[in-house]
Amino acid sequence: MNDGHVDADTAEEYTHDPARVDVLAQLVDAACEGVEHVHEVGRRIGNLAADRQADPDPHAVRALTSTFHYMLSAERLGSAQPGASLSQLDDEQSLYPPALKATGDQVRALWLDLAAAVTHPIALARCHDIVFTLRLGGRNSRDHAETAARSYLSCLGGSLRSREQSHGLLRALTITRSVGLSDLEAELTAVILDKAEEVVSARDDPHAALPLLDAILVRRRKNDGAPDPRAVALLDTALGAYPQPHLVSETATVVRARLSADQTMVEKANRAEIAAFIAQADAQTDGMTIRYSLSQAASLARKFGVQDLERDATARLQKAPPPEWATISGDWFSPPQHWVATFMRPYRYAPTWQDALKAWLATGAPSGSYDVNKKTAQATFGNSVFLRLATRISFGHNDLPKKVSTSDEDALAADLVDIESLEMSMRGDLLARGLDLIAYRFGIPNQDELTDFLASSECRPQWAAVLATAFRLYWVREFTASAHLAVPKVEAAARALLLELNEPVYRAYVGDSIGQFGGLGVLLEPLVENHFDQDWARFLRSFLLSDGKNVRNNIAHGFTDDVDGRTAALALRAAAVLIIITSTETAERDRATAISALEHPTGRPPRLSLLQRVRRAVHAAGPSTPQDANYAART
After folding, report:
1. 452: buried, middle or exposed (CB in 10 Å: 19+, 13-18, 0-12)?
2. Residues 6+ apart with CB under 8 A from 36
3. What three-state secondary structure class fits 502?
4. Where are the domains of the chain?
5. Coil, strand or helix: which one is 284?
């Protein structure tokens, strides 16, 4: 049995024979009888051809099959030009059916002759629509448009499902408007309103009604009169007919796009959309669903300025039951032991704490390579249907939703942050172990010695002192205090570097507003424009800002009460990378020197002699010292 599916290039093998058109037309008309979906016609053509004794040319059957696999697609609700079009019109990536504009002359000749031979309304609509769309009829293009539109109209009340009939009417209206058939447009408008009323009254498929009302209510000219009152009334009815939040949202979208002058109607639609999400929350028992619904309601209420519903939704959200979190863990996140050993080598063999800390300050961005992470995220996202379809909700403190990502761009950005977060988790552990080993081997350096060591890079002495204090707080296990001291200096150092480059980052006051510098998120962009290493810029963004872990805001607003050693080590690394490359307030560096510091924030890698490379290889292969074994047992 033929399922109607064909290879992408089989239709192009067809050679048109006008003498066989009547036979093919009879096959198509028979296949159109009683179908509920137009694409069923293609499958039935293959089945009917296989059942008949005198089979038509198989290439002709395949060409006919592909004819009915083009789909009518309604434009997005609220778009500038609502209507419907034949899909795969000009899509180079479409393999089956091939893009209409990519079809060959032989298949086009078949469509032109078939349009004059078929009799079933479904076949007439499809064939004349294709002929009109591709302008195959020459001067008769307008006639083909009218025949296609009237054929779609004739499908009304037939076997096709309600949405298919609706999309046919929408396509007929689109064609009619495009060629200026005003009498037919008036006739279609009346039929469309009847169809929409039938659907809405029966609480039938809303997508068989909303696109029709959207197209009827669009203002096509500046001098258009008042909106059709019947269409407005039906849209009003639809707001209450479909209580599901996503359907209320779609209906409200049409109201806001087409009836923007009617503020009473717009406010009613806004409130209905917000209330739908609140009602959905009330009907649920799952904490995640409740919080998502209330978050959407509060967000919409804030957007539309509905203050009473915003207060109501926010109060409900704050008291909503917490979601049940599941933690997924696995050994596949653990770094290889040889990698750990390589990373820890400088802290095990450095002769002084200064050498060990110098090695720690020379480590790369904890989030890893931006280019590698980006390619990994793109590959993962491209190979996962689930990631492309899923809605991602990010939660902040107190288990309150902070962002909903639905677009591919948002989802890809979130995947990138997830990959960077895994890198930060592993590298943060290693950075913490490195600091622990320094203190274990050498003790905690005193404040003055540590400040002098950090200031030896010619950075600002007062910031070197703050950074030294933050390190010492880490070593006495006061991780929270260490992070609270280090994190604010990241933004201060970024601002100082940009001022040194004389970048215009200060926002002058306007009216009653206060003149001020932008936050870290604003400062990172001009840093990158001045050649700041992209890997480090991504680390600072993903670790400190709301794009990722949001550590900066969490600390600034008092949400972080208990910082672990890994987070404290990452905070120290974030502060150190910028503080170390600042200059004293009295120093004057030329622009090239400052930009070079941004480009290589941890310094250029030194050239090692052959003897140094041999010694490193020996250390890497050699056994650990007893002192290292004692440290490993402690940690």
Report:
1. middle
2. 159, 160, 161, 164
3. coil
4. 11-223, 343-621
5. coil
